[in-house]
Amino acid sequence: MLKYIEEAADFLKQRGFDTPEVGIILGTGLGKLIEKVVIEAEVSYNHIPNFPTATVEFHKGKLIYGTLEGKKVVLMQGRFHVYEGYSLRDVTFPVRVMHLLGIKHLLVSNASGAINLNFKKGEIMLIDDHINLQGDSPLAFRGVEKMGERFVDMSAPYNVEMNQKMEQIASEKNIKLHKGVYASVVGPQLETRAEYRYLKIIGADAVGMSTVPEVIVANHLGLRVSAVSILTDECDPDNLQPVDIEEIIAMAAKAEPDMITLFTELMKRL
Fold first, then answer.
1. Which domains, and CATH codes, for the chain?
2. Does the pLDDT at position 228 exceed 60?
3. Which of 54, 212, 231, 232 could make a disulfide contact with 78, Cβ separation 3.0–4.6 Å?
């Protein structure tokens, strides 16, 4: 695996991906941050050696390098999911490549459903902690100790200082920013009423199908991580409506400007 990571990183370095400071993973319907980036290089995933290829229609499948608010960044425009048939090592492979390129910080966004009914669709939740319900770990493979500590401490997987800065920015910019626990499931099916009740009982405030594997690997690599969930639907088991993908994308678009503000302002303060 180390060889594959090095091959991908070397390929990108040859194409101008020169020591980025920050990695950014953009979730479903959340690609407009790229408009704020002064792009210096971009490569489709299917051109990068050993890289998975995005199969979800809402994910573009490009790695982009450039400058955002004075910082060199590498952005994933489209991410990978277990429900696409990938292993967790595939899903997290790009994080390892970005780390080898030089990133020290990782920012993650996702679209998720609100389990906490005090949270409304179109709002944003800062992830304070998570629950891994994907049934596996991206660190559960032979030789993982060659890349970092096998038994990674997860007492604070999301960087406290970065999260505090995000909350401060939200206060200054009058952005409604909740804070809570994100549960990551396999998908791709949405949850049943009973599953939403279960998620609430175990302490989840939001549920989605991504982010946690990448955050686990980021902690394994010693990266400082902050992540936000765009709440695209309300998961009330007593008043559950059939899922509407178009509405989910519309809710992501509604909240995206505030997410962009949070991320761009945070860049100035890293």
1. 2-269 (3.40.50.1580)
2. yes
3. 54
